[in-house]
Amino acid sequence: MEVFRKIFRPVRFLLAVLPACFISCTSSSQYVSLSGYAQGGNYSVKINLDGVRKSAGALKLGIDSVLNLVDNSLSGYNDSSVLSAFNSGRRVTPDSIFIEMYSLSHKYFEMTGGAVDVSAGALFDRWGFGFTADSLPSGEEVAEIRKYIGMDRLQADLAGALDADGTLAASDIVIDGHPEHRPVLNFNAVAQGYSCDLVAAYLEREGVRDMLVDIGGEIICVGLNPGGVPWTIGVDRPVDGNNVSGADLKGILQAGPGKCGVVTSGNYRKFYVKDGRKYAHTIDPSTGYPVSHSLLSATVVAPTAAEADALATYCMVLGKEKAASYIDARNDIEGYLIYEDDKGVMRTWKSDGFRLIHD
What we know:
Shape: globular
Radius of gyration: 20 Å
Largest sheet: 9 strands, antiparallel
Number of helices: 9
Number of strands: 17
Distance between the termini: 21 Å
């Protein structure tokens, strides 16, 4: 869901010419920007060092350590990760990150009525949006895969499935009587937002009170920016070919000073076209097929980046009308939807509390 870039032009310029990790001072002597590579893309963290005992360099080492722990636990592209071993059927010793991510994922499965389903990894793989290069499954294949996905066929708490030695295998958590159909997990709909939350929690423990954490476009922020006002975040225009975050913006929102996660999901970057038809990466587990509707992107502001990540995906599954109704029905989240009307004209909808300062 890499469709955000915070509005801070000096940092964006430096990222363009210096892709390696760096630490740079900003216009305020107490603010620094830390950046690096993580989870298949770049991360950027902007923090106020006022009152913080550690140096910027030490904090960056801590951030990199947190992200390395996440990679070794949850990455499906890391053959040595806990997730990769789990999905292959091997016994694993799940760490605290894996256990918490699984628990959150079960919570979001229930919250979204099964629309956000990390156990649908085999379905994502078969469509070519997971950890394989497959595409265009037959109807029979989709139907067969759908029989054995759903977090409701798995234990809600991994701790209850652990052996005495602290290990488990994928088949151990199946509760529907078919352990031979072991789950294949894919945390991509939540993991980057969750990573933002972990980094923010680490920085808060070190005394940071003003920050914006951006990992591949998923964001969590709290406090004020170097100008002494809440953070501003750009929402990209959701058109095919807009692959550079911040290059073509549809709107700018203001977030903070209270802590919040801000995530956009859209179908204009991860897709392929076969026989003249576009297949996007948002898959509805209830049908087994990529969604096809007028909603182009959904931006969600939620208490955590993990929840914003999950709910942005949920909105993309729902479509514009149902997503707007869902956001309006909750008093703890805000949303901004970009969609096409029946004439193909790009339109927007926002909830009352979504602070759009430029459209």
